[in-house]
Write a structure and sequence with these properties.
Elements: E1 3-10, E2 16-20, E3 26-29, H1 32-46, E4 56-62
Parallel strand pairs: 1-4
Antiparallel strand pairs: 1-2, 2-3
């Protein structure tokens, strides 16, 4: 695997939630800089062997926007 993709969503209580597609990796943080650190750490923990660890981490942001009509 050369890449792992994370879906990033706004957390209901504030901050962000990240979950990997096809892997059991979940993390959260209060801001985007901290979230990036948490994601890197979670990927290193999930793939302890550097040879099998994905080389790229892609972040896909999902945002809902509601506007009044």
């Amino acid at each position: 695997m050369s890449e792992v993709v994370f879906l990033i969503e706004d957390a209901p209580e504030g901050g962000y939630i990240a979950r990997a597609l096809g892997e059991s990796i979940f993390t959260e943080a209060d801001d985007l800089d901290r979230l990036r650190e948490e994601i890197r750490d979670a990927v290193r923990c999930h793939f302890p062997n550097e040879q099998t660890r994905p080389k790229l981490i892609r972040l896909h942001f999902i945002r809902d926007e509601v506007i009044a009509s």
